Amino acid sequence: MPNVEYTQDGFVATITINRPEALNALNRDVLAGLDEAVRRAEVERPRVVLLTGAGERAFVAGADIAEMATMSPDEGRRFSETGNAVFRRLERLPMPTIAVIHGFALGGGCELALACDIRLASTKAQFGQPEVSLGITPGFGGTQRLPRLVGVGIAKELIFAGRNIDAARALAIGLVNAVYPPDELRAAAERLAGDIASRAPIAVRAAKAAIDLGGATDLDAGLALEARFFGSTCGTADQREGMAAFTAKRKPAPYEDK
User: Fold this and answer.
1) CATH class of 4-197
2) Would you kindly state where each structural domain of the chain is located, as residue ranges?
3) What pLDDT digit, counting tens, does each position of 49-58 carry?
4) What are phi and psi of 188, to 5 degrees?
5) Which residues belong to the active site?
6) Which CATH number applies to 200-247?
């Protein structure tokens, strides 16, 4: 995967979009590499996945305009479907995903961050859905995930005007979880990933599934889902150790994912 790197350190995997000469722009090859990396995470099952971009200027600056410029309507639809399928696979990973965002996260880059569970940004990060200024609409989930995250009115403002926003504004509207100085961003992401990885992994995955599936239904159905997932965590070795440690007022032994 020359344009996408997959590495793992302990329980934390990192997927890096590695096309810095093009500001990590998403073309067909990058999408194929990202799909392969996500499939690898499905198989290797790290407890947390970090997603970032190579270089200092961009997380992902967007989809590759040079590749899109001559697309016919059918080609454009297929390109959108391909990107959406890859991003949906990322979104459906059972373990938490954290976007580590420095520099530009525009268009497809913003949409890629939206497909992650948590977004951490550098103070130098820039976000936006500028597609209408290029004569197109967002095509990798921006019209669907952005309003669900920040509200319909703000999403329409950002998409209709095609304006970029800085990290402070992104934090204020709930687009990102936290903002850090550039030289502190990666360490902050690794600390958060480490905290998550140290928790009972069965419970973390069940909590993610309950949130994601429950958010797509009504409250009563969501509560029924929660009860089902809660029940699935009872009787596990992780649950027994966690509660025994609490009762004994000690730290739990490392969780074993069983």
Assistant:
1) alpha beta
2) 4-197, 200-247
3) 999 999 999 9
4) -65, -40
5) 111, 131
6) 1.10.12.10
